[in-house]
Amino acid sequence: MRFYPEEDVWLFGGVFRVLADHGYGNGYEVELTDHGSGFIGRLKIFRYYRKKSPRVKLENHYDDFEVAEILREPYSGRIFPGYENIDLPFKELATLIRNDKPDWKSALENVKGVYLITDTSTGKRYVGSAYGDQGIWSRWEAYVRSGHGWNKELQELVGDKLDYAQENFKFTLLEYRPAPTPDDTVIYRENYWKEVLLTRGKYGLNQN
Questions:
Q1: Contact criterion met (CB below 8 Å) for 164 and 157
Q2: What is the mean pLDDT of residues 19-42?
Q3: How would DSSP label each residue in the chain?
Q4: Which of 190, 186, 181 is nearest to 126 (CA)?
Q5: Which of 88, 128, 190, 201 is deepest in the core (most CB within 10 A)?
Q6: pLDDT value at residue 75
Q7: Using one digit for the tens of pLDDT, what is the confidence trace for 92-141?
């Protein structure tokens, strides 16, 4: 699988046995084997690749592989880069949430703030906020579980499937505030960003 933080680097996810082929477009039924299990999540391979298709027949490129690195521990997500440098594709955010990544969780669970979700397929954006007893971590966890975080605007776009969000959404933190910050302040800043980024109406995904 592509190793998002590093260009042209792939992370070994295991060797799978095909149990059934459900036909074109319907996928396969597979099971994980023990082959190379000690390298799952640890082996990073370099292979220059610039084609748009995300589905690559890697067996056609074996001769070009170079071992980039073997991690001491299985990869569980990039190191927290600081509040000002958060730029996460949905799938990477989901990995961090599922792994309960300690550095990210400790940084985000006790802060309020305003965030931006960008639909990379259309360029439209959604501004949201986390306040009250809900930190940024908890709010983003809701998106990972549902795809839309129960926002009406995004529910209409995503529906009841995660596929669209997984393929097209990316998350950015616009600003953060300490937990004691009054909720009204966070809401005010949320509205400020909606105005600045024109996320209401035809240019964005906010309805209010």
A1: yes
A2: 87
A3: -B-TTSTTEEE----EEEEEE--TTT-EEEEE-STTGGGTTTEEEE-----S-S---GGGSGGG-EEEEE-SS----PPP--GGG-EEEHHHHHHHHHTT-HHHHHHHTTEEEEEEEEETTT--EEEEEE-TT--HHHHHHHHHHHSSTT-HHHHHHHTT-SHHHHHHEEEEEEEEEETTS-HHHHHHHHHHHHHHTT-BGGGBSB--
A4: 190
A5: 128
A6: 76
A7: 999 899 989 999 999 999 999 999 999 999 999 999 999 998 899 999 99
